# Entry
Amino acid sequence: MPTPTWSHLKPHLQQLSKEQLVALLRELYALNADNKVFLATRFVPTAPEQIAAPYRKVISQVFNPDRGHPSLQPARRKALNDFRKACNDPLPLIDFMLFYVEEGVVCTRTYGDIDAPFYSSLLSVYRSAAELTSKLDPAQAEVFQPRFLAIIRDTRMIGWGFHDGLIDIYTSELPPHWEL
# Structure
């Protein structure tokens, strides 16, 4: 049997009483941490830093573990995607995306050259952060300029076209008056 779609579930949910819906949401809340974060961000005023903390921890540990070498597994992308779903405010999302790229830069500077897919992934996140930033009010966007520039500065000696890719994104996606 195929997985039920939303259109299969919706009529059943519409038949539930308010109490039954609350009970169902409680079960979903208890099911896993992602559900807790998602529901909390929708209904309880929560500081973005508080929402981001567990995701930042995952990113830091994957890119720059306390012991051993980075695992560079899909956990880093999962943490980013989960945070993206949990946070509906572009400012903390841009902050988190830049943190992700900054941790990736620290990783490659600490452990040496990685591989092309690693750098492509970082460029993709940097581009997404730049695209979101370009849609902000100029005063809000200005806050992020030093971090975009620091990432470029910190990657001068990194290969695989990573540094050049960052410059291309910076000059094509971010406000034209932001000079390198």
In short: The chain has a mean pLDDT of 90. Residues 100 and 161 are 19 Å apart (CA to CA). Residues 47-173 form one domain. The chain has one domain: 47-173.
